[in-house]
Amino acid sequence: MSRKTLLVLIITVAALLVPVSLSQSAAATPVACSVTWGSQKKMAPSTVIGELVDIRSGRNECYDRMVLDFNSRVDGFVVSYVDQVVEDPTGVPIPLRGGARLSVAAHGPAYNDNGQPTYTFQDRNELLDLTGYQTFRQLAWAGSFEAITTVGLGVRARLPFRVLTWDNKVIVDVAHTW
């Protein structure tokens, strides 16, 4: 075998091995999920109010996310861990699965000016299918009264969370760990 052929063979084998070693090291590196959010009450005053039109959720490597979608800009909310989420305005307790409960109240009704619903659901106790989520356990309807819509979010444990508003959304992220 000539030196040139041997050199080409060595370079080819090395080139084939590099992606394998890189992918193995990347797969072995855990995702850094450091959060500084905390678990205390978070709130923001309302300057604009939209009508709730959808609720959805998603999973991230570091947190589970719930999004309240409104038909126009919204910015007011109160989100906190509570001993018991209660229905607004009756005060009836809402049972939730999980080791902790978040009350999520957004400043915006789930009905229009004529009193017609803008958000509807099939099961008030299971607004979304949260099967497979690492942190979320259950999302239940707690009411929409006097332009404030409330849902109860059952989570695995009292974990750090953050609340974001972006255009027509109120976003709640709950971390998987401290």
Q: What does this entry look like structurally?
A:
By secondary structure, the chain is mainly β. It has two domains: 30 residues; 134 residues, Immunoglobulin-like (Sandwich), CATH 2.60.40.3500. Helix content is 15%, strand content 38%. Strand 8 and strand 9 form a beta hairpin. InterPro entries: AMIN-like. This is AMIN-like domain-containing protein. Keywords: Signal. Pfam families: AMIN-like.
Tell me, briefly, the overall form.
globular
CATH class of the largest domain: Mainly Beta
Tell me the structural class. mainly beta
Beginning-to-end CA distance, first to last residue: 60 Å
Low-confidence parts: 16-26
Task: Provide the spatial order of strands within the biggest beta sheet.
Answer: 1-4-7-9-8
Share of helix, binned? 10-25%
> Using DSSP, what is the number of strands?
11
Report the C-alpha radius of gyration, rounded: 23 Å
| Average pLDDT metric | 90
Biggest sheet features: 5 strands, antiparallel
Approximate strand percentage: 35-45%
- Would you tell me which CATH topology of the largest domain applies? Immunoglobulin-like
Number of helix segments?
1
CATH architecture label of the largest domain: Sandwich
What are the key terms here?
178 residues, 15% helix, 2 domains, mainly beta, five-stranded antiparallel sheet, four-stranded antiparallel sheet, Immunoglobulin-like, 1 helix, 11 strands
